[in-house]
Design a protein that fits this description.
8 strands, Ganglioside M2 Activator Protein, Chain: A, five-stranded antiparallel beta sheet, alpha+beta, globular, binds 2-acetamido-2-deoxy-beta-D-glucopyranose, three-stranded antiparallel beta sheet
């Protein structure tokens, strides 16, 4: 770091602290891709981001379940951060979703992710699932940055879903975290 850069860095940190106290859109959803491996098991009726208001992007997913009830669900979550291409970052974990609903403390990190989804979805109950999985108007909550203090950048979160003994599909969510360096 050169001396010339130094004051700018300090200045940036001040901005970051300021933004954390008076935060607006630190998180921004950028893109989403949904894939079901076999139509006989599931189909995506909806998989999109929509602008809900100024700077506010909502996530909409409707996965139609073609074989119910779903008795076991395992979710594999991997976070990537864009450096020179996307590289694994911070966590890569496997969660037994049915077990999670019985004992949330078992997966503290997944609980943070779930916390961001639960108000906007119909998955808030224990297994089995005998209905479509729907997420509507989900927005990223800036309070999440306090729980997961990640640096500014572009991220990709991959969800791989295994249900009733086979891998069924995957979701890729792209998001930007902007702590205000370049505003
Ligand atoms: C994440 O962990 C799984 C094993 O649980 C492994 O198969 C996979 O390659 C890992 N992915 C990355 C990107 O490290
Ligand atoms: C979910 O709803 C509860 C109660 O309405 C609220 O306190 C909480 O902040 C909401 N969480 C998110 C992530 O929006
Ligand atoms: C579902 O949501 C309600 C209200 O937000 C909460 O009281 C309940 O514990 C949740 N159930 C599960 C299984 O998470």
């Amino acid at each position: 770091m050169t001396l010339k850069n130094h004051p700018f860095k300090v200045f940036s940190y001040v901005i970051v602290i300021f933004l954390l106290c008076h935060s607006e859109a630190l998180f921004k959803l950028k893109n989403i891709k949904c894939t079901c491996y076999e139509k006989s098991y599931c189909e995506f009726k909806r998989c999109e981001l929509k602008v809900l208001g100024r700077g506010l992007v909502g996530l909409f997913v409707h996965a139609q379940a073609n074989q119910v009830p779903i008795n076991s669900v395992t979710c594999h979550l991997t976070l990537f951060k864009r450096f020179n291409g996307y590289k694994p970052f911070l966590f890569n974990m496997t969660v037994d979703v049915c077990y999670f609903f019985k004992n949330k403390k078992r997966y503290p990190f997944f609980d943070i992710v779930y916390d961001g989804i639960k108000n906007f979805s119909n998955v808030n109950h224990t297994c089995p699932f005998n209905h479509d999985i729907i997420v509507e108007r989900m927005v990223l909550n800036d309070k999440m940055i306090a729980k997961v203090p990640v640096p500014s950048g572009f991220y990709r979160l991959n969800f791989y879903v295994r249900a009733d003994g086979a891998w069924r599909g995957e979701l890729e969510v792209y998001a930007e975290v902007n702590l205000g360096y370049d505003r």
